[in-house]
Amino acid sequence: MQEKGLLIVLSGPSGVGKGTVRKEIFSQPDTSFEYSISMTTRNPREGEVHGVDYFFKSREEFEELISQGKLLEYAEYVGNYYGTPVDYVRETLEAGKDVFLEIEVKGAKQVREKFPEGLFIFLMPPSLTELKNRIVTRGTETEDLINNRMLTAREEIEMMHLYDYVVENDQVELACERIKAIVTAEHCRRERVEQRYIKLLEAE
Ligand SMILES: Nc1nc2c(ncn2[C@@H]2O[C@H](COP(=O)(O)OP(=O)(O)O)[C@@H](O)[C@H]2O)c(=O)[nH]1
Ligand SMILES: Nc1ncnc2c1ncn2[C@@H]1O[C@H](COP(=O)(O)OP(=O)(O)O)[C@@H](O)[C@H]1O
């Protein structure tokens, strides 16, 4: 029987650098996990591509996916739906590959309920002031939305105790190294690694 992959969930407040860290991780040639592309009803930002950054859906299409049970989790965030396609995640895990989700905290909580054996990593900003700087610097939000996101961020940070690990995103490269080290350590800790070596011993 094929071993199942590890479900890795990266979450944290908006603007902390989840997208930046995720893109850096997936630009590294030694990264062996698969990124699950989310569905969203928000409009594409400049340069974003359907099927690469997100699957962009209308509200009607998204609600249809919800009612058909096609989403592992979903959440409404600052007026738009975001969700993870369940079939892709299950099939990829079944194929023995690790799946990486980059999602907000309400969705991560739902995944924890359905997949308690997942690996949950919370990305922390060095400070709330730095978090606000990052959202302002990114320049994608109006002032109202920034204030809204800062309020949401405080609530999100209070959820960090639900995670297995908290990683500070002080520098992107360091945050990526920490995340990869955690995944490597988790593989060593999990029984299936042990089982692989037991099989090896039996074969000799
Ligand atoms: N629950 C959930 N959240 C998601 C999903 N995809 C992205 N998000 C989160 O939705 C929030 C808003 O994403 P986005 O509009 O791309 O803005 P940004 O991450 O702040 O650049 C971020 O916290 C994302 O991590 C998903 O499939 N499910
Ligand atoms: N370690 C870091 N140091 C400084 N700026 C960062 C760091 N990580 C991300 N940023 C910047 O912060 C902003 C928000 O990052 P982004 O990846 O969009 O966050 P999220 O996906 O969590 O909402 C972007 O302008 C990004 O370039």
From TrEMBL:
Enzyme class: transferase
UniProtKB keywords: ATP-binding, Cytoplasm, Kinase, Nucleotide-binding, Transferase
Catalytic activity: GMP + ATP = GDP + ADP
Pfam entry (one): Guanylate_kin
EC number(s) reported in the record: 2.7.4.8
Chain ranges of the Guanylate kinase-like domain: 5-184
GO molecular function, a single term: ATP binding
InterPro entries given in the database record: GK/Ca_channel_bsu (IPR008145), Guanylate_kin-like_dom (IPR008144), Guanylate_kinase (IPR017665), Guanylate_kinase_CS (IPR020590), P-loop_NTPase (IPR027417)
Localization terms from the record: Cytoplasm
Cellular component annotations (GO), alphabetically ordered: cytosol
Function as written in the Swiss-Prot or TrEMBL entry: Essential for recycling GMP and indirectly, cGMP.
Family per similarity comment: Belongs to the guanylate kinase family.
Protein name, UniProt field: Guanylate kinase
Protein source organism: Neobacillus piezotolerans
Record gene name: gmk
